[in-house]
Design a protein that fits this description.
It is a single chain. The chain has 394 residues and is mainly α. The chain folds into two domains: 17-133, no CATH class; 145-389, no CATH class. The protein has 16 helices and three strands. It has helices at 3-13, 21-41, 45-67, 74-99, 103-133, 138-141, 151-168, 184-190, 218-224, 248-259, 265-277, 282-303, 305-313, 317-332, 341-368, 381-389, and strands spanning 213-214, 228-231, 236-239. Strand 2 and strand 3 (236-239) form a beta hairpin. Helix 12 runs antiparallel to helix 13 (305-313). The chain is globular and about 75 Å long. The protein starts with a helix and ends in a 5-residue tail after the last helix. 32% of the residues are buried.
C-alpha cells in the first residue's frame, strides 16, 4: 500500500468545519448589542440597581468563590495569558497576512476576532461591575446627606483620629529600630472577619468576603502608584504587597468593600476605614486610623493651616516614622536607580509616562462612571467620615 498516497487523500478529503454565516454574525453582534443595551440603560438607576442586585452580585459572588480555591491571583494569571496570547496572535497575524493572497481580507478577519473578544470582555465588565456605579450608591442607601461638613466638626474628628493613631502606634509590632513589622499572612487570614461588627449598622454589607491575593506584579503596581485592585471578572481582591505594611490592612478592607458591592472609591475608603476601626484587631484599627488621618489632615490643611499644624505636631514618633516611611517609599517609585546615568534617565522617564498614562486612563474611567472627582475620589471619604463620627462622643 502506498501510505504517502493514502495520507495525502485523507488530508484532501478531511472535512472542514465552517460556521453558518448567521451564527457567525450572531457571535459578533452579541457583545455589541450587550454594550449598547448597557449604555442605553445606565441612566436608569432602577434598572441598574435591579441588574446589580439580581445578576451582578450573584455572579461576582460565584466567581469569587471559584477564584478563592487558588492561593494565587487568577486576575494576574488571566491578564498575563491574555497579554502574551494577544502578542503571539498579532505576530502570527502579520506572518500569515504576509505570505497569503487576499492580505486585506485575512487581516480584517483576524483583527475582527480581536475586536469581538475585547467587546465580550468589556460588555461583561459593564454588566458585572460598571452597572453598580449607576445604581443607588452606599451613601444614598444608608442616609448620608452629602450636605458638607462644618470646619469645627472636621477638626474635632481629625483630632480623634490623631489621638487614636498615637495610642495604637505602640500596640503594633515593631523592630528594634521602631519600624513597623507587617505579618501579611496573619493579616490576610484575619481580614475575612473584619466586617462582622458593622453589619448591624450597615445591613447591606452582609455578604461573604474572601481572603485577598498577594500580587506577583506588586512591583508594577508600585511603579504606577496603586496599592490594590478588585477585579470583578474573578471576584478577587488583589493587594500590592510591596507597599508599606502599616496601611495594607486598610487597603485590604477597601478592596473587600468593593467585593461587598461598594462601588464608589470614597465610599469604599469610608467602609474600609470603619470596618478596620470596629474590627477589634489593633493591626487593622491602626491602619484604619492612619488612612483616615491622612485624608482628614489634607482636608484640614486646606481649610485651617494653624489647626493642621497643631494636630500634626501632636503625632507620636512612631506615627511620624510610619508616615515618613510611606512618603519615602512612594517617592522612590518615581525614579529608577541602576547606577547608569543615561539608563536611569530613560527608565525614569518611561516610569513617569506609564504612571501618568495609567492615572489618566483610570481618571477618565471613573469620571465616565459618575465619579466626578476621578482619581481624587479616594480623598472624598472625608465628608463621610466627619458626618459619621461627628455625631458620636468625640
Amino acid at each position: 500500500m502506498n501510505l504517502e498516497g493514502f495520507f495525502s487523500r485523507v488530508k484532501r478529503t478531511k472535512p472542514k468545519f465552517k460556521l453558518p454565516l448567521a451564527a457567525l454574525i450572531s457571535i459578533c453582534a452579541l457583545p455589541v448589542v450587550l454594550t449598547i443595551m448597557f449604555y442605553a440603560l445606565r441612566s436608569n438607576t432602577g434598572a441598574m440597581g435591579w441588574t446589580d442586585n439580581n445578576i451582578a452580585v450573584p455572579v461576582r459572588g460565584f466567581l469569587g468563590l471559584l477564584s478563592s480555591v487558588y492561593p494565587f491571583s487568577m486576575m494576574e494569571v488571566l491578564c498575563t495569558v491574555a497579554g502574551v496570547g494577544l502578542i503571539y496572535y498579532l505576530i502570527m497575524t502579520g506572518m500569515v497576512t504576509a505570505r497569503r493572497r487576499g492580505k486585506l481580507k485575512i487581516l480584517a478577519k483576524r483583527l475582527l476576532a480581536v475586536v469581538v473578544a475585547a467587546l465580550y470582555i468589556w460588555s461583561l465588565f459593564c454588566w458585572l461591575w460598571n452597572s453598580g456605579y449607576h445604581a443607588p450608591g452606599f451613601a444614598e442607601k444608608n442616609g448620608f446627606t452629602g450636605d458638607g461638613v462644618k470646619l469645627e466638626e472636621l477638626i474635632a474628628v481629625t483630632w480623634m483620629f490623631a489621638e487614636k493613631a498615637n495610642e495604637l502606634s505602640s500596640l503594633v509590632d515593631r523592630d528594634e529600630d521602631g519600624k513597623y513589622i507587617a505579618d501579611r499572612r496573619g493579616m490576610f487570614a484575619a481580614s475575612t472577619d473584619i466586617f462582622h461588627d458593622i453589619i448591624d449598622e450597615f445591613p447591606d454589607l452582609d455578604g461573604r468576603v474572601y481572603r485577598p491575593k498577594a500580587m506577583m506584579f506588586s512591583w508594577l503596581m508600585s511603579r504606577t502608584g496603586y496599592t490594590g485592585i478588585y477585579f470583578a471578572l474573578t471576584g478577587e481582591s488583589n493587594i500590592n504587597i510591596n507597599a508599606p505594611g502599616y496601611l495594607m490592612p486598610a487597603t485590604v478592607a477597601h478592596e473587600q468593600a468593593h467585593q461587598l458591592g461598594v462601588f464608589a472609591e470614597d465610599e469604599a475608603n469610608f467602609i474600609g476605614i470603619v470596618a478596620c476601626l470596629s474590627s477589634g484587631n489593633p493591626v487593622f484599627e491602626y491602619a484604619g486610623y492612619m488612612l483616615g488621618l491622612t485624608h482628614l489632615l489634607n482636608a484640614v490643611m486646606s481649610e485651617d493651616f494653624d489647626a493642621w499644624l497643631e494636630i500634626y505636631a501632636s503625632l507620636s514618633a512612631d506615627v511620624m516614622k510610619d508616615r515618613w516611611e510611606n512618603h519615602d517609599y512612594w517617592l522612590s517609585q518615581k525614579s529608577v536607580n541602576t547606577g547608569v546615568g543615561f539608563l536611569d534617565t530613560v527608565l525614569t522617564a518611561v516610569t513617569e509616562t506609564v504612571s501618568d498614562t495609567v492615572d489618566t486612563i483610570y481618571d477618565g474611567y471613573l469620571k465616565a462612571q459618575k465619579q466626578e472627582l476621578g482619581i481624587r475620589s479616594y480623598g472624598a471619604c472625608v465628608d463621610l467620615l466627619v458626618e459619621h463620627f461627628a455625631v458620636r462622643d468625640l
